[in-house]
Amino acid sequence: MIKFLSKFLYVLRGKQKKLLVMIFLFLCISLLEVIGTGAIGPFISLATNLENIEQNYWLNWVYSNLKFTSKNQYLLTVGFLVIIIFYVKSFLSFKAQKLIFKFSFGQQGELSLKLMRLYLAAPYTFHINRNSATLIQNIINETSKFVNGLMIPLLVSISNAAVIMALIALLIFTNAMATLMIALILLIGLLLFHNFKDRLGYWGKEGSESSAEMIRLVNHGLGGIKETRVIGCESYFEEKLQKQAQRFGDSVSLAVSFSNLPRYVIEPFLITFIIIFTFLFLAFDKDNYQNLSSILGVFALASIRLLPATSNLLSSVNTIKYNTISLEKIYLEFKDLEQASENKFTTIIDSKTESKLAISFENIVSLNSVVYCYPNASKNALEGIDIEIKKGNSIGLIGKSGSGKTTLVDVILGLLTPQHGDIKVDGVSIYDDLRAWQNLIGYVPQSIFLIDDTIEKNIAFGVADDAIDHERLYNAIESAQLTELIKQLPDGIKTVVGERGVLLSGGQRQRVGIARALYHEREILVFDEATAALDNETEALVTESIRALSGIKTMIIIAHRLSTIEHCDRIYMLQNGRVLKSGSYQEVVMSK
Ligand SMILES: Nc1ncnc2c1ncn2[C@@H]1O[C@H](COP(=O)(O)OP(=O)(O)OP(=O)(O)O)[C@@H](O)[C@H]1O
After folding, report:
1. TM spans, by residue (predicted)?
2. How many structural domains are present in the chain?
C-alpha cells in the first residue's frame, strides 16, 4: 500500500497540492450527501407525527428557540429547508464533480505529453530496443487507465471511506447493537474480496498485455498491407488478433464482473440479517415494537447510504487492483527515462531555444578511433574508425551489407554514442554540445519517413505553418528536382501525400526527403543511400543536384550505386566495422 502510494505520488509529482484539493472536494460531496440523507429523517418523523417535536431533543430545541407560532409552520419550514439542502447539495456536487473531472482528464493529457517528451528525448538505442506499439499503448491507453482506473477510483474510495465512517459513527450513536451486526456483514464482505486481490492483478496484466499486442498486430498487418495482401496472410493476422481480442475480452469481463460482485453479495447478506434479526427480536422481546422499528430504521438508513458506499468502495478497490499494472508501467517509464536522460530531459523542454544552438564549423570534422557496440551485441559494429572531413568536402562510404555504414552514420548523427573515441569539430568534441552539432546536420535516410500531410509540410518538417520560409522551400524543391512533379500535381505543394507517402512513387518520396534536408539549410548533409530508390533518369538528376552542392555543403554519402559518389573528394571502404581502404574514387573504387 505504501509502495503503491509512493509510486502514485511519484507519477503525479508537482500535483500533490491539487490532489489534496480534489480529496477535500470529494469529502465535501460526501458530507453533503450524508447531510442530505440525514435531513429526510427528521422531516418524515415530523410529518407522520407532529408530537415527535417534543420527543426529539434537537427538533424541540430548534422549535422553542426560533419561536415558531405553530407546529404546522415548523413542519413547512423544515420541509423547505430539506428542499434547499438537496438543491444546494446537487448544485455543489455537480460543480465539484466538474472540477474533479477537469483535473483528472487534464492529468491524462499531461501524463501523455510527459511520456511523449521522455520518449522523444530518450537515447536512440532505447527506440531500437522497444516496440513502438508498446510506446503508443503507454501514451494513449495506460495514461487513460491511470486516470480512470486508478486516480478517480482512489478519490472515490477516499470519499466513500469517509461516508462509511461518518455513517458508522451516526449508527453507533443510534444503536450500537445493530451497528455491530452491520459492521460484521461488511467485514465478511471485505474478507471475501481480499481473496480476489491477486486474481484482479493477474487479469489487469492480461488485459494490458493483450491490448498492447492488439496494437502491434494492427500495426504489422495494416502497416505492411502491400506485403500482407501479396503474400495473402490476412487470415494469419485475423486469427492472431482474434486470439488477443478474446484474451482481452475474457480478462476485462472477468475483472468488471468481479468488481461489481460486492453489491450482489452484500445485499442478500444484509436482508438475511434483517429478517433473522427481526425474528429473533420478536421471539425474545415481543413487547418492544417501538424499539424494533427504530432498529429497523437504522438498517434502512444503512441500506440507503451505507450499502452503496461500501460496495462502491470495494468496487473501486477492485478497479484499482486491476489497473495497478498501469501505474507500474508509467512509474517505470518515468523513473528509467528521467534518470537516464536527466539533462537531456531538461533541455528538451526548452526545445525552441535548442534549435538555435550552434557550434562553429570552419575547418574540419574528425572521427578519432570510434568504437561502437550495440547493446547486447557480441561484437563491435565499429572497430576504431578514423575519418577526416574538411569543410566543403564530400566523402563517400562504401562496403558490403553489414560492414557498418549505417552504424557509422548514426554515430555521426549523434544518435548512437561510441564507447570509445571521439568526434571533433575544429578540435571541439561534439559531445560537449550534441544538440548544437545536430543543428549542423541535414539527413536523408534510406527510407524517408513521410507524414500524412501536404508536400509543403513534409519538406518543412517540424516547422509551424506560419514559420515556413517560402523562398527556402522553393529553393529546396528546385534543388531536389521536384519542380516539375509539383507543377503536375492538382494542389501543387498543398497536395497531401497519404500515410507514409503512399500517393508518391519511391523516387518522388526520396526527392521529398532530399528537399527536406535542403530546406533546413544545414552545413553538413548526410545521405544514406539516398538515390537507391530512384530510376536512372531521376537518379542522374538528383546526383547532379548533389554534385552541384559539392564545395558548398559538406557531404557524407552512403551509396551502393558507385555513380553517386564519383564526385566525392574521398571514399572510405568499410569492412567488418573497420576502414579497409580510403582515398580518391580512382584509388578505392577503380582499383577494387
Ligand atoms: N540494433 C542492432 N543491434 C545489434 N546489432 C546491430 C544492430 N543494427 C546493426 N547491427 C549490426 O551491426 C553491423 C553493422 O550494421 P550496419 O547496419 O551498420 O551495416 P550497413 O553497412 O549499413 O549495412 P547495409 O548496407 O545492409 O545497410 C551488422 O553486423 C549488424 O548486424
Report:
1. 20-44, 74-92, 150-172, 178-196, 264-283, 289-307
2. 2
